[in-house]
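Contributing new records

If you add data, match the layout below exactly. Sequence lines come first and carry their own label; structure lines follow with theirs. Keep one chain per record. Anything else will be rejected by the validation script.
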Amino acid sequence: MKQALIIALVALAVLGGWLLISSTQRAGVAGREQVYAQEMQQLRSFFEDKPTQPHLPDHLYVLLEDGTGLFLHFDKPVGRDSQILWIGTLVPGKFCKADQERVAKAYGPGFVHFHQKFIPGSDPNAGHGGKGGEEGYWYRHIAVVNIPKGDMMAGTGVPWGPVKPGIDMNFMPTPAPQC
């Protein structure tokens, strides 16, 4: 009896898997897009913080209790994106060389980009670097795919490319001043 039950459960599992695969194949691209949309909604509900004002439209963030955070950086603004290019870490700090060195010593290499916390005006790109001593975040971008050399705003790559998966030491460096 026990063997028959196990055989029946295995048969049901195989049949269920076959039905799932065949229905996904019939659904084709639409099915994959629906799954992607559901997964993105789950990510958005977790990565919902906005550490910079205005918010960077091609990023999703989650801030941790200690003030550091994790982010996803997409090829286009979230909702019009087609892939994640970088994952990363951000650490609160000041735009000063000594603070960048503190972050590197505590968290490791790759924190080459600084973004102001409060950006004057409405253009989030205006927040790269800044005046010495401004508050913001040090970013470490870790590429998750090969990124070609191209136009970042057009979504065709990055001007400092090509980039291979791993820490992107060339991601828009913002040389910090002595403070």
